[in-house]
Amino acid sequence: MRLGWSFILRGMSLALATEIAARPSPRCVMYLTGQHPITPPIDQLGHVTHVALAFMRSETFNDPDRSDWPLFLTVDQTRPKFLRDTKVMIAIGGWGDTAGFAEAALTDETRKNFAENVARMVKATGADGVDIDWEYPGGNGEDYKKVPNASKAWELTAYPLLLAALRAALGPSKILSAAVPGLPRDMLAFSSQTLPHIMRHLDFLNIMTYDMMNRRDTITKHHTGIKLSLEAVDAYIANGARPADINLGFAFYTKYILTEHDACAGGSAVGCPTLLLEDPETGADLGRTGGFSWHDEVPGDVRESFEQALKLGRYDEEGGGYYYWDGDRDIWWTFDNADAIQRKFPLVVERKGLGGVFAWGLGEDAPAYEHLAAVSEGLGGLKDKGAGRKVEL
Length: 393
What we know:
Number of helices: 12
CATH architecture: Alpha-Beta Barrel
InterPro entries: Chitinase_II/V-like_cat, GH, Glyco_hydro18_cat, Glycosyl_Hydrlase_18
Number of domains: 1
CATH topology: TIM Barrel
Radius of gyration: 21 Å
CATH class: Alpha Beta
Strand order of the largest sheet: 1-2-3-4-5-6-7-13
Helix content: 25-40%
Order of helices and strands: HHEEHEHHEHEHEHEEHEHEEEHEH
Structural class: alpha/beta
Enzyme class: hydrolase
Domain GH18: 26-382
Largest sheet: 8 strands, parallel, barrel
Protein name: chitinase
GO cellular component, one term: extracellular region
CATH superfamily: Glycosidases
Strand content: 15-25%
């Protein structure tokens, strides 16, 4: 039974009420990227608890003699852009960056070398910790057509060992987090056998609940919709992650996909066939899908279609996503507007008792920062309800 917050506090012991009131505010992690290294005025960043500078390449840390740590923005340059207690982290890896991690994870010696180099970097830069973006250990990454998953099966056990080495090198006071897949088909390294071992070493998971429609798909769906987000969160919880250690991902960018005309025009635009999006032999992008951030210039060939999507798009109550199908140009648009973002707080973050949220990425939302404002409003509502934690009697 769920009761009002004030009533719950009145009915509890003073000690328990004090403990709940003292729980930390929800985490809010913002990736700050080299592609869009800009930030809003600091008064718009009151809910941001962590910023992750993205990225350092993974192979950087396999050289035992490495002494330089290249960043598009130093930690010292970053701190004044945020509130004083905001944690500044370094994100290592990213989409397509797998070879350096695989080399690092191979043996006890390579894992120790990698981890010690990461720790040296953290000390030298003054960072508060690192975010590990080996997004697809065990397979299903960018090269999945060229390098079969079977040849990467060893990574399923090596990944937790690499995280263990990182925690040992960083010590207990530095933050260690990981960005992880949002689609169950990609959660190869995050099974019920491996995830409990992984979570022993991490402070939190950033579940990438976006790009959940991509060029491997053949029908239209919401790339960051509520239904798929809940499936992702439920999978991690079922496999051993505590809800409080999970951050829900938000996408500050759009996606569009080319579709088959007749099938989409004859029925619902949700779940209708796309054109072939990737080469069936190589997995290469066939150029029939795209996307851009709110800070980017809209590509000329889709500008008019995007303007229609902004004006005529609708919210799908079943799948939980904002979308538009342009029947004249056969383009499926999927992205979050402010309304779609705010719906996720009661329906996903609060409902599941998650520890926080994150977004890719902060500068991608410039110059208006409307999506950041929507996230901040959602976080403000959670804080009013007790930092997003469920209290059930």
